[in-house]
Fold:
Amino acid sequence: MDDDSVRAKIEAAYRRLPVLSERAGGIPTLVEGMAAAAGPVPERPRFRPKGGNQVKTELLDLQRKAAAVANALDGLHWFSRLELGAGATRSGVRLDRAVLVEAIRQLGADAGEAANAANVESWRPASSRAAVVAKCLALDYRQLTGKPPTITVDSYSDTSVATGPYLTLVQAVFAALEITASAERAARNALATPKDTKI
Structure:
């Protein structure tokens, strides 16, 4: 399967979500990140995983730094703003300072939101590709919709089939990336605390 086809399928899956209008511009970046998962991934990571407290600390640090950069850009003297714009033009980059400041503030807000998510403290990076993709999709879902990802089961149905936009996203991306593991199990594990996780 070629890269463009994979990207198109992943983007279509993201666009089916109930995305907040102000966050729709972030979809291409998320698609690129997820498409990178199409390559070969070692079963065991070659790095020492960070525990939940380290992840939370890192995200809160990113939140603080994003606020500092946004405030610095906001507080620039008019001549510095002019020079910053001229430098960007010389390098061929279109720079809209107000848009940049807003994007950096949104990054900080997203980092803070992720750090304060209910299950981030107990999360440990998983070693399997399916688990990593499902966990990333849970974070992407929260970022794009502003709501926590959930999986629902109609208790009045005879079949007890799991549904929901997050599960549909996981199923579509697993199909695009040709991940053969159970999308439902990976999605449930991504939302579970470690003691609830099933292998």
Observations:
- The mean pLDDT is 79.
- Residues 53-115 form one domain.
- The chain has two domains: 3-48+125-196, 53-115.
- The helical segments are 3-15, 27-35, 52-74, 78-90, 97-115, 129-145, 165-177, 183-191.
